[in-house]
Amino acid sequence: MEVDGKEIISTSTQLIDLLRRFLGVQQRRAAAYERLRRGFAEYMVTGGDAIYQQLCSEITLEFNDCSKQVLEMESVLSNPVFHRNDLADLLKSVQAHEKQKLHLTARIQVLKKAGRPSERLISHEKCTFTKPTEHRCIHVCEITEATGTEDAEADAEYDNSLNEAIRGVQDAVTCINEHLEEVRYEIDALEAV
Asked: 8-12, 57-61, 86-90: which has the minimum mean pLDDT?
């Protein structure tokens, strides 16, 4: 009987360790998102493409490593030793929400980089210059109600896309946090045994 008790304790301890490792992976992801947020903010100020691309490469490697570790944990939880498909499904759900969060975070950054249509810089490459001081700008035109409406509609579409992506990230974060809380409750329950 004692052998079975030790086996249960050992399995519980292993499960607690695995779940704590999962929470550690999630902390790594949170730190990577913070680095990405700071890097993007700096990029928007300085325009340093090479530095930002390097950061994105590093963050991608970090996220890939985190995902790989969680997939391994899912597999372990599903195996006959633990047979905790409920926890494997929970980790799988976190993975899905993390994927959605990353996709929407990238979308937000693309939108912010492009800027609102009415606030985008105009290129004067196709303008004509008769003399160095005479600039005939092709962008100068009469503002009509129709063009004003088009601009307002383009800005509204941009705002809606940005707000939708932001809400999506917020929803994903809420779901992730709820799942992490479930993992913490599971750890507490296992420790109480």
From this structure: 8-12
pLDDT band at 3 (very low <50, low <70, confident <90, very high): very low
Q: Which pTM does this prediction carry?
A: 0.81
Interior CA angle at 61 toward 58 and 62, to 5°? Answer: 85
DSSP 8-state symbol, 118: G
How many helical (H) and strand (E) elements, i.e. helices and strands, does the chain have?
4, 2
- At residue 134, the 3 state secondary structure works out as strand
Residues 17 and 82: beta-carbon distance below 8 Å: no
Positive or negative CA dihedral for 83, 87, 93, 98? negative
DSSP 135: E
Are the beta carbons of 76 and 18 closer than 8 angstroms? yes
Contact 12, 193 (CB under 8 A): yes
- What gap in Å lies between CA 44 and CA 112, rounded to an integer? 9
CA dist 184 and 53 (Å) reads 36
Residue with tokens 């963050």: 59
